[in-house]
Amino acid sequence: MPDRLAVDPRVAQMRLADPDHLYDRPFPWLAAVAAAFTFLQLVLVVPGSGLGWDETVYVSQVSRDVPAAFFSAPRARGISYLVAPVATLTSSTAALHVYLALCSGCGLFLALWVWRRLLPSAVLAGAGAMFAGLWITLYYGPMAMPNLWCALGALAAVGCFLRAVRGTTDGKALVGLGCGVALVALMRPPDACYLVLPLIVAALVVPRWRRPAVPAVLVAALLLGSAPWIIEAYLHFGGVAARLHRASEIQGGVGRHFAVDDQIRALDGRTLCRPCEVPWRHRSTAAWWFALPLLTAGGIVAARTRRPAAVLATLVAASMATPYLFMIDYAAPRFLLPTYALLALPVAECLRALFLAARPAWRPTAAVLLAFALAGHFAIQYWTLGHVVGRSRVARQEYTAIADQLHLLGVRPPCVVTGYDAVPIGYYAGCASRQIGGHDGSITADGLLAAARRTPVAVIVTPGHGAPAYARAWQQESLPPLRGGPALTVHLAPSEHMESTAAKRPSR
Fold first, then answer.
1. Are 155 and 341 in contact (CB under 8 A)?
2. What is the pTM of this model?
3. Is 87 helix (H, G, I), strand (E, B) or coil?
4. Of 96, 301, 408, 433, which has the highest C-beta tally within 10 A?
5. Taking the chain, what is the end-to-end CA distance rounded to the nearest angstrom?
């Protein structure tokens, strides 16, 4: 009886000649990429980093120690649900960031893992490394922000879609598709719409991809993930249309806006560029951005038998980038994280093809040149990351100093902070943040005066700006500066609590 385990010598020769044979076991390679991603976050980003403005809003919704900040129309509660297991147990920012770093590493592994039957392990590992190596990805990995989770959900959803529309029914792929879309919808419902739209079109237009279950799963997952946002729209904003209208107002009016140049300038290390009327100082930070379309096109051409996957990933990436490039008038690099995650796949295909295109004798030289190019790219990314993380650490120190000074002045929990930067200052001080008007308008002047009769109330103003009329007669004190500017001013409401604290303070 012939040995069924024997391998024909010609087959063995072909396997050894195939570079993907070196990576025919995806688990160790994808696990290594995810572990490196997590390790770099824990070493480069987590130590000393604080919570930014948006993070304090999301975390405060589930924090055990801080009152919930006003939740404006554009936001969704997905990231609050994600941080709840830690935020409800401890107020430690470091613990929260470590938890999110571990979660994002696992999320990257799972998002790549669903593609293991579609792409070679070499392509997946390369795509994961390219995406995880961006300063944007590393910075937001441990941050309580939704954009990276939209990216991971979109990456997993597209992979599961391609598996679900193949000839044989893949029940696990349908479940994964639903979970990926629901995750994106839970984090940012508009992003989920731009994810689902091209997938539904593809499922209806491509004859061999027509599976009745796929569009049904896409729509159901979109509605399920968006359900909390939709319910909240009717409870607090007057319906979905009213919430979308209010969200558009807060975002400066969603319409025709060309923000491509804003996104390019934001790669300089700006987490938010609004308005983005700033000089483009370090142009090398955007070199990879200009190479991205060329590498993507090269990857689509090189993919050959895997071309449908590369094309679909590119189309979904373009769809999810559209509102942030052409419909709002400001920029933040995190908005395009889903696009970068999906385009990493054809980019990795292109780099692999460039290496294989070289003659065997020239491949060591090609590998060295490619390594030098990638080393230069990642060096710029880590240089930019260092500057961004440095600003985060300084901001944490400044907010902590302001919170400490407010505590010395008698503004202690339970308390209310309003005025300039009230949301993050209130979070660091353990106070509720309330604004009379603007995007976060959640109280009236009479409401603040009523609150001042039972709890400390602090109105923070910037130099050159007077206090509102209702606070002009209140006690005035100085606070440490923010962002290298002059000292801030705080007006303290008169109350028995404040007077007793002031009496205990040593005279200067």
1. yes
2. 0.92
3. helix
4. 433
5. 99
